Amino acid sequence: ELGPDKRLMESFPGLDVDKNGWLRCNSLTGETNLVGVFAAGDNTSEQHLAAFAIAEALRVASHIDQYLKV
C-alpha cells in the first residue's frame, strides 16, 4: 500500500501530519514538531524513488548528528 504508514503515526502521538497523513517536517533538517524526532523518506512525501529517500536520509542524518552533539 502506498502512502504514509499509519502505524508510525500511532507510535508517536502528537506528531504533526498534513491532511493526507504525510509527516510535516523541516525539508532541510528533517526536524518534526516533536523535540528530538526527525523524519526522512517515504513518510515525508509522495516521492517513492529509493534514490530520493536515500539522499534525504543522508542529509537528515548529518542534522541528527549535529543535534546529538549539542
Topology:
Layout: H1 6-11, H2 50-69
Question: Overview of this structure, please?
Answer:
The structure is a single chain. 37% of the residues lie in helices and 0% in strands. With 70 residues, the chain is mainly alpha-helical. The mean pLDDT is 88.
Count of DSSP helices?
A: 2
Helix content: 25-40%
* Low-confidence runs: none
Q: Radius of gyration in whole Å, from Cα? A: 12 Å
Describe the sheet with the most strands: none
Q: State the shape.
A: globular
Give me the count of strands: 0
Pattern of helices and strands: HH
Compute the average pLDDT.
88
**Class computed from helices, strands and strand pairing:** mainly alpha
What share of residues are in beta strands? Answer: under 5%
Intertermini distance: 38 Å
